Amino acid sequence: MENISAMKASDKLGVLIVGLGGAVASTFVIGTLSVRNGFSKPIGSISQLSEITIKKDGVITEPKIKDIIPITPLENIVFGGWDIFPESVYDAALHAEVLTKEDIEKVAEEAKAIKPMQGAFDQEFVKRLNGTHVKDTTNKWELAQQIREDIKNFKKENDLDRVVIIWAASTEIYVPMTETHMTIEALEKAMKENSPEIAPSMCYAYAAISEGVPFINGAPALTVDMPALIDLSVKNKVAVCGKDFKTGQTMMKTVLSPMLKTRMLGLSGWFSTNILGNRDGEVLDDPDSFKTKEVSKLSVIDTILEPAKYPELYGDIYHKVRINYYPPRKDNKEGWDNIDLFGWMGYPMQLKVDFLCRDSILAAPLCLDLVLFTDLAQRCGSFGIQTWLSFYFKSPMHEMGKDPEHDLFTQNAIMRNKLRSFIGAEPLDALV
Ligand SMILES: NC(=O)c1ccc[n+]([C@@H]2O[C@H](COP(=O)([O-])OP(=O)(O)OC[C@H]3O[C@@H](n4cnc5c(N)ncnc54)[C@H](O)[C@@H]3O)[C@@H](O)[C@H]2O)c1
Question: Which residues share a beta bridge with 51?
Answer without folding.
Answer: 64
